[in-house]
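new request in #modeling-help
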Amino acid sequence: MRIPFEEMKAEFERVFIKYGLSKEKAEICARVHAQTSRDGVYSHGANRIARFISYVKKGWVDVNAEPTKEKEFGAIAVYNGNLGPGITNALFCTDRAIEIAKKYGIGLVGLKNTTHWMRGGTYGLYAAQKGFVSISWTNTESSMPPWGGAEPRLGNNPFVMAAPAEPEPALLDMAMSLYSYGKLQVTRLAGKKLPFPGGFDKNGILTNDPGAIEESMRILPMGYWKGSSFAFMLDILGAILSDGIGAADIDKIGKGSCGGCSQIFIIIDPEKISVKDHINEVIKKAREYIKTSSLAQGDKEIHSPGEGITAARKENDEKGILIDDGVWAEIKAL
Amino acid sequence: MRIPFEEMKAEFERVFIKYGLSKEKAEICARVHAQTSRDGVYSHGANRIARFISYVKKGWVDVNAEPTKEKEFGAIAVYNGNLGPGITNALFCTDRAIEIAKKYGIGLVGLKNTTHWMRGGTYGLYAAQKGFVSISWTNTESSMPPWGGAEPRLGNNPFVMAAPAEPEPALLDMAMSLYSYGKLQVTRLAGKKLPFPGGFDKNGILTNDPGAIEESMRILPMGYWKGSSFAFMLDILGAILSDGIGAADIDKIGKGSCGGCSQIFIIIDPEKISVKDHINEVIKKAREYIKTSSLAQGDKEIHSPGEGITAARKENDEKGILIDDGVWAEIKAL
């Protein structure tokens, strides 16, 4: 079914308020979840509301907690998220990093002991729309085997880079596995195979059968050994730069997906070192340049990162935001 | 054959001095190339000496150029590399970013109009050995098709992350293609196939035949669409944060591999926000944790990023550094 943006947002807000979020926090979280679905990232929009509420009920998210400053030195600050809502914690830290970047050109905020930030791209887009370049990531509980191993020991840590551009910011928002577990589930339920092998089955054979990978939990890092190493670095740098913890300890505390994790927000004010015209020109030229390539067989167009959002958003704005009937019913019943 | 470190370094130094580098620059470049081979990264150690000299002869590298400061704001500085030697330019900017990080906790140096920095990991290891966390990348001429396209329009941009640790720093040094053209060549000459499909043949079929990919130039981005998007972002952010140029223009100026490219050096002083014991503990714990996974079939061990260097370095220190007979003869003849 399809639900208009304002109706969807109002419903999310009702639920968040019912479960204890302040009016202000409920509005922010509802807006971000609705925007996420509107951009076509359904997995972290509407589809996460019920799970978020279950975490609140279990005490894994403290709806009243606010981030508190632990350390500050020059252009760096460290906050304790106190297990508050991941979205408001992450937006607060993005704003803090923006303030620092305005003063020093670059700012880094490390946020420890926080909860799931939902769609990582939210914070990149938010900063880019205000004119800032951002590099962000979060560490998470482990869900992916390290290269050479058969059991999950690495987080599927999302890494985000964004830059201001017209008509849409340039945005990279990628997790470390080739496919998410969500994608495996959706593909299996549709009775389909993955476009490329997405993991190993329980016998260690590379496969494009989503069910076999869900069973083995041997999801494939993007680029095999490369994604495995990248996930490792994001884990340790997340913990180091926030004075927080990595996957080994996140797994131990067992507060659900991302409970107690660390997030890093690096914000740069590009106009402190270059003129706006140059920045626009660089991105415009790069976007045009990749499209001068002939198309690969079977491909209809070449996208630059971030451009894919535009079509999904347009369709969802025109027709109402796509949402699974069951997911909507579950939210209405909360 | 195998050549002891000091002999190899002295020979590189002789060549660099002969072709006009100052004694100081020649010593630095010789050391970095010899260390690169010693660490087992032969492709960017001894194997690049002859090509570097050919670039000097063509005027693509100005051996006398020094980086000059163009801009500075707070914790950011921008330098023009003036097409000087990539290694000395990049080390200079790493040192500058370290100086800034000591003052502000974090420092960013953008370097435009520089030349090939050889092994990207050099700068990560250098900073980590001094106790700093680093995030660096370079943009390059295009050599990889964008996802959905069939012709090279994206640089195979290396991305580097490093953190101080004992006994070896944690180090990620990865380019955006799954395999390098060097790896394709070596595999083809050995009459072997790639372990995983590494690109498309000229008919657009995914293949593990290295020769077919060299012919089509359709090398595969790591993680397919993910590596393609990541390469795009590194290209534009490299250009934006150094007030420099991206692949579209690097291709146009045609000064060889990386001629005129942009590099970014972000350095963070982790002890400004965390204690050394915590930093060591985070990395030690993560390294141990991934090794608690059972091994995948056919795998003998699980490495954390950076650990692979130790074995290669030990063997090359004990037996002399491995070098191809032809490569050594070519250098001796320079």
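bot summary: Chain B has twelve helices and 14 strands.
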